[in-house]
Specification:
It contains six helices and no strands. It is elongated and about 50 Å long. It is mainly alpha-helical. InterPro entries: CPPA.
Length: about 100
């Protein structure tokens, strides 16, 4: 993982829970957790993380003993197409 803890500061969720949300997939998983147990339990789980574990959505889910359903984790076709389009644009700009 690059960037260190300071790089993560821009990736925290918008609810003030302190959970690191870096991708659209993280956001979907985070939203699922909040809908399932609420912000308060998510904060409690973050505070209860053992040792030096960082507040990634996957670590919070493990702490809560919740398995996030596969259909929540799968990127939609629309999002996939948007991401592919952005990658193609970047590649075309870098090849000039």
């Amino acid at each position: 993982m690059t960037g260190g803890p300071a790089a993560d500061l821009a990736n925290f969720d918008n609810y003030g829970t302190g959970v690191i949300v870096s991708t659209a997939r993280d956001q979907r998983a985070f939203d699922f957790l909040v809908a399932r147990v609420g912000c308060e339990r998510v904060i409690e789980a973050r505070l209860a993380l053992p040792g030096q574990r960082r507040a990634y959505v996957s670590n919070i889910a493990k702490q809560l003993k919740i398995v996030i359903p596969e259909d929540v984790m799968i990127t939609s076709r629309e999002e996939g197409r948007r991401q592919l389009s952005a990658i193609k644009t970047l590649l075309s700009l870098n090849s000039k």
